[in-house]
Amino acid sequence: MPETMLAAVLYGREDVRIERVAVPAPEPGGILVKVGAALTCGTDLKVFRRGYHAAMITPPSLFGHEMAGTVVAVGGAAGAPPVPPGTRVVVANSAPCGACRPCRRGQENLCEDLRFLNGAYAEYVAVPARFVERNTHRIPDRLPFEAAALAEPLACVVHGLDETPAGPGDTAAVLGLGPIGLMFVAMLRARGAAVVGIGRHAPRLEAARALGAADVIEADAAGRWVDAVRGRHPALDLVVEATGCPEAWVQALALVRRGGTVQLFGGCPAKTTIPVDAHRLHYDQITLKSSFHHRPSTFRAAVEALARGVLPAGAFLGGERPLEDLPALLREMRHGNRAVKTCIRP
Fold first, then answer.
1. With a threshold of 0.85, does the pTM exceed it?
2. Is the pLDDT of residue 10 over 70?
3. pLDDT at 54 over 90
4. What is the per-residue DSSP string for 217-264?
5. CA-to-CA distance for 34 and 36, rounded, in angstroms?
């Protein structure tokens, strides 16, 4: 085992550096994973631009949270190792306590002591015992590391669909066609719903169509697309908002049919407010729901969906870059227009 490794370290706003640091030792009950693949993520881009995340990461800190790899060492606890060396795993970026009231009610994503794991952009990552116990998942040999690393964002989508299900006979619109929106398109289609994809940029619209969207509509800046959606799809059973823009939240509420459901998936900044037509909300019996993060059960379901090929992983992977290129890649990503993720090979 080497004594040092290359790793991305977040120091602050738009300040990520590739440095040589000590290989961490696993704690008792923990494991050390050699990273096989890490994936870029919109959340990591937000953290890069802001320099921190209030709940997930405080600089200076190791960086990145979507990864899969191979166990190479275990902590010094007595007894058989929980996950023996040589096991291929994908590790969730959070671990609930399992004891608080939300956890006891099956809402582990709202755990009062939810812990987060960073450090995916590195050659090795030390996984604490709680993560090993509650949110580390074995992956089959046939599933490539880069595909398995998609489990984290997919688990969030699965959680969202558990909260606002749709299936055969339903028509669902997905507003926003980044990686998360495209996952919603694919998973809604897999569950039998007819899907309308709404977004900007031709590559994203084409990706939505390739993933099974029955119709795609380009969202122009002037807002004319809203009338186009209403004209072509006047009875949307479910509208998924996947942009995190307040304007899109308002538009999602305006598009859903009477008695329909809106999934407010995209998170807005703190203290954001939106106007709501309370009359329509009540008399048209609109259901508003939101979903945050994922639960161990939805993470497990995401791994299984990837292993079965329910989600075509290749549609979400847009090439590879070495770890040394990560700072430059994050700067490129600031300009947007990326429909897929990039695999980082440590």
1. yes
2. yes
3. no
4. EE--TTSHHHHHHHHH-S-EEEEEE-S--HHHHHHHHHHEEEEEEEEE
5. 6
Alpha helices in 51-201 (DSSP H): 101-104, 129-135, 145-148, 151-163, 179-190
CATH superfamily of 165-289: NAD(P)-binding Rossmann-like Domain (3.40.50.720)
Q: Is the pLDDT of residue 337 over 60?
A: no
* Contact assessment for residue 287 and residue 166, using Cβ atoms and an 8 Å cutoff: no
CA-to-CA separations, 196 to 14, 31, 170, in angstroms, rounded: 35, 43, 11
**Superfamily of segment(s) 4-153+294-345:** Medium-chain alcohol dehydrogenases, catalytic domain (3.90.180.10)
Which residue has better confidence, 205 or 340?
205
DSSP 122: B
Strand pairing report for 194-199 and 215-218: parallel
What is the average pLDDT across 292-314?
Answer: 97
Domain limits of the chain?
4-153+294-345, 165-289
Q: Is the peptide bond before 24 cis (omega within 30 degrees of 0)?
A: no
Distances (CA, A) of 65 to 122, 153, 317: 10, 10, 16
